[in-house]
Amino acid sequence: MPDLRPNCRLWLFCEEHSGVFGDGKVRLLQEIDRCGCLRQAARNLEISYRKAWGDLKKAEECLGVQLIERSRGGKSGGQSLLTDDGRRWIEAYAAFLKALHAHMDEDFAAHMQPLLKGNNV
């Protein structure tokens, strides 16, 4: 019998927009935090700058918070920094995802594991 385990993708949405906040936005915010530049973060994640910018704008509008602070380029180049709200959203999402996986593992063990062992309950 294969070693089956549950897995899921999680994202938050609202009626007006799908995919407001999830794994992709978290990865983008973490990469911005690491490199300090939205354009470079998008490049590192192999997504277009336009998509990255649009995704963040949509998330900020729906969540009602500013996730990053942007400064335009120039001689010294632009910069993007995570806001305190941006950090809180990353941390809260990670905690929520961890709790979700814990419950999912428990429910999988209770409901699905007996079938995998050949015990038709």
What do these coordinates show?
The chain is elongated and about 65 Å long. Strand 1 (11-12) and strand 2 form a beta hairpin. Helix content is 55%, strand content 10%. It has a single domain (12-116), classed as Arc Repressor Mutant, subunit A. With 121 residues, the chain is mainly alpha-helical. Strands 1-2 form a two-stranded antiparallel ribbon. It has five helices and four strands. Helix 1 (23-35) crosses helix 2 (38-44) and helix 2 packs across helix 3. It has helices at residues 23-35, 38-44, 49-63, 84-111, 113-116; strands at residues 11-12, 21-22, 68-71, 79-82.
Provide a quick synopsis of the model.
Helices cover 55% and strands 10% of the residues. The chain has 121 residues and is mainly α.
Proportion of beta-strand residues: 5-15%
Total strands? 4
Cα-based radius of gyration, to the nearest Å: 19 Å
| CATH homologous superfamily identity | Winged helix-like DNA-binding domain superfamily/Winged helix DNA-binding domain
CATH topology: Arc Repressor Mutant, subunit A
The major beta sheet can be summarized as: 2 strands, antiparallel
Which consecutive residue ranges, at least 5 long each, have pLDDT under 50? none
List the domain count as a whole number: 1
CATH architecture: Orthogonal Bundle
- Assigned CATH class: Mainly Alpha
Helix coverage percent: 55-70%
Strand line-up across the major sheet: 1-2
Mean pLDDT: 90
Q: What is the end-to-end distance?
A: 18 Å
Net shape: elongated
Question: What structural class do helix, strand and pairing data support?
Answer: mainly alpha
Order of helices and strands: EEHHHEEHH
Helix count from the secondary structure assignment: 5
